[in-house]
Amino acid sequence: MYKKGSVLVLSILMIFGLVMSGCAGKGSESKVKVGEVTRSVFYAPQYVAIEKGFFKEEGLDVELQTTFGGDKTMTALLSGGIDIALVGSETSIYVYQQGAEDPVINFAQLTQTDGTFLMARDQEKEFNWDMLKGSVFLGQRKGGMPQMAGEFTLRSKGIDPQQDLDLIQNIDFANIASAFASGTGEYVQLFEPQASIFEREGKGKVVASFGVESGHLPYTVFMAKQSYMGKNKDTVQKFTNALYKAQQWVGSHTAEEIADAILPYFKDTDRDIIISSVKRYQDQGTYAADPILDDGEWNNLLNVMDQAGELKERIAPDTIVDNSFADAATQKK
């Protein structure tokens, strides 16, 4: 009886140990709350990092939410509603310009060009930039990267956005596409996959790419408050490692393979539209090959913001950019 009792106790302890070790394994994952400024094929490497398990491999449990707009995303970050934001670098500059005691630091770049395309309602005429003069242009939010990069491009084509266009900017980001679909504007700036969807539906034609025309920019970047990064260096490093794995995966796979990986995030969109969108971004080099934000891109961003009248002073990149995590991720064997 003693031996049987001992075996029973030992068995119970072993089972308990296995259960606890399983719980410990789950508990060992660090939870990270991420807010993306919008849901877009533009952010394909982020979804790949989740779907291919690259965050899990690094011991991270990423909770993704869409925060719809740069201002709302930054509010969520500053208030602690999210740990990491995926948003345009200009938002970190705005926070810095306001004299924040706990500045927001850019640590991993996701996209390196503007992600919008110029869509014309009239699909018959052969496009040239002068056709925009005098037209009704459905733009983006003042001070946001899509609008600033768009204006930067227009000026380079000899067009004054404020004088030469009937510029509409009072429509919320989430409603711009539906406004164009309902008849507002002769031209509009749209992200993918909306641009491809409208082309298929015959609502317009993509005639130019603001990503190609405005050059390389730290357009969409993962960032966090300085205080969070100071307390969670290991988590930030693991996050950046996972992102780099995803960037390498995207760089070595076809548009079809990438589309299949990210389809769960676009359940209401046809696969061929996702493929078309991914290919469009691939062809113009939108997806950054690594998470490093270089000085040339940063200075181009400052030029874009300066032209838009949104920059109080030029800010050296190392003031609110920390490439140490990206450098470590790319050097990891």
UniProtKB/TrEMBL annotation:
SUPFAM superfamilies given in the database record: Periplasmic binding protein-like II (SSF53850)
Gene Ontology cellular component list: periplasmic space
Any matching Pfam family: NMT1_2
Keyword Cell cycle: no
Keyword terms, alphabetized: Signal
Recorded superkingdom: Bacteria
Locations listed in the record: Periplasm
Family the UniProt entry places it in: Belongs to the bacterial solute-binding protein SsuA/TauA family.
Name of this chain's protein: ABC transporter substrate-binding protein
